[in-house]
Design brief:
By secondary structure, this protein is α/β, with parallel strands linked by helices. The protein has a single domain (8-236), classed as NAD(P)-binding Rossmann-like Domain (Rossmann fold, 3-Layer(aba) Sandwich), CATH 3.40.50. Helices cover 45% and strands 15% of the residues. It is built from eight helices and seven strands. It has helices spanning 17-28, 41-53, 68-81, 105-133, 145-148, 154-173, 192-195, 213-225; strands at 8-11, 32-37, 58-62, 87-90, 136-141, 179-186, 233-236. It has a seven-stranded parallel β-sheet with strand order 3-2-1-4-5-6-7, sandwiched between helices. Helix 4 (105-133) links the parallel strand 4 (87-90) and strand 5 (136-141). Helix 1 packs across helix 8 (213-225). The longest helix has 29 residues, at 105-133. The structure holds NADP nicotinamide-adenine-dinucleotide phosphate. NADP nicotinamide-adenine-dinucleotide phosphate (NAP) binds at residues 12-13, 15-19, 36-40, 64-66, 91-95, 114, 141, 143, 186-189, 191-194. NADP nicotinamide-adenine-dinucleotide phosphate (NAP) is lined by residues 12-13, 15-19, 36-40, 64-66, 91-95, 114, 141, 143, 186-189, 191-194.
């Protein structure tokens, strides 16, 4: 099996939850890992410290990934500190549980911008370098909401379904460049996003319990190591949606 030694990973929203789990798992597999966060510097620092404990380099960078200028600065800082990005995990996201009738235009735009536009922006910022080097892995954290509607609302479901279309388009466009692009569709993973959502009940899940961040992280590492899987959506959902 290949490992990820000498590869540089960038995890957006890597300061906690699923992103933090993926960041540490990538470091265990040999990668140097940059942690992006928006608000919680302490949490990002703690994840970096855990990665350094594993003998890998790490770096944390504050940036709102829905803003193009911040994305450009973030990628430049990561490259200056760790080197060019080989593995991009588009994980940052927000979920505000709402019914369609309750969603304001501002809320719709915020969810679509943070969850979907950010994936376009960060991918655009790293794709040129990946193509030049002839190797890259892009892993987009979508959701079961793209497949079933989920437990958050239509704005969230639309943003997560959009990520799958973007995944297919990028996978096809860069299929001859040594770059694979895949999505993971999790549900319901025990993080603050889920424990703060009154609609997210373990009873929604056929297995009857929430998943752990490690359940998702192990799939992300598999996708980072695999050369021949591209354009796929891997479901990690306790049986909620079956393909
Ligand atoms: P979480 O615990 O709420 O963590 C969200 C992370 O995203 C935090 O690190 C946060 O950073 C960061 N973030 C939010 N907005 C950002 C922005 N504009 N720029 C940069 N970073 C930003 O969520 P989670 O449950 O780990 O979810 C991670 C991803 O998985 C999300 O895309 C979510 O939609 C998806 N997902 C989760 C589940 C689940 O069951 N948990 C299921 C399906 C999909 P700060 O804390 O520093 O602000």
């Amino acid at each position: 099996m290949p490992d990820l030694k000498n590869r540089v990973a960038l995890v957006t929203g890597g300061s906690r939850g699923i992103g933090a789990g993926i960041a540490v798992a990538l470091a265990r597999a040999g990668a140097e890992v940059a942690i992006n966060y928006r608000k919680r510097a302490d949490s990002a620092e703690a994840v970096c410290a855990e990665i350094v404990e594993l003998g890998r380099k790490s770096f944390h960078v504050k940036a709102d990934v829905s803003v193009a200028a911040e994305v450009e600065r973030m990628v430049a800082e990561v490259e200056a500190n760790l080197g060019p990005v080989d593995i991009l995990i588009n994980n940052a996201g927000i979920a505000q549980p709402r019914k369609l009738e309750e969603i304001t235009e501002l809320e719709w735009d915020e969810v679509l911008t943070v969850n979907l536009k950010s994936v376009f922006l960060v991918t655009q910022a790293v794709i040129g370098g990946m193509r030049k080097r002839g190797w890259g892995r892009i892993i987009n954290i979508s959701s079961v909401a793209a497949q079933t509607g989920g437990a958050v609302g239509p704005h969230y479901a639309a943003s997560k379904a959009g990520m799958i279309g973007l995944t297919h388009s990028c996978a096809l466009n860069y299929v001859r460049d040594g770059i694979t692009v895949n999505a993971i569709a999790p549900a319901l993973i025990e993080t603050e996003m889920v424990t703060s959502n009154m609609n997210a009940e373990p009873s929604l899940i056929p297995m009857g319990h929430f998943g752990s961040v490690d359940d998702v992280a192990s799939v992300a590492v598999m996708l980072a190591m695999n050369d021949y899987m591209t354009g796929q959506t891997v479901s990690v959902n306790g049986g909620w949606y079956m393909t």
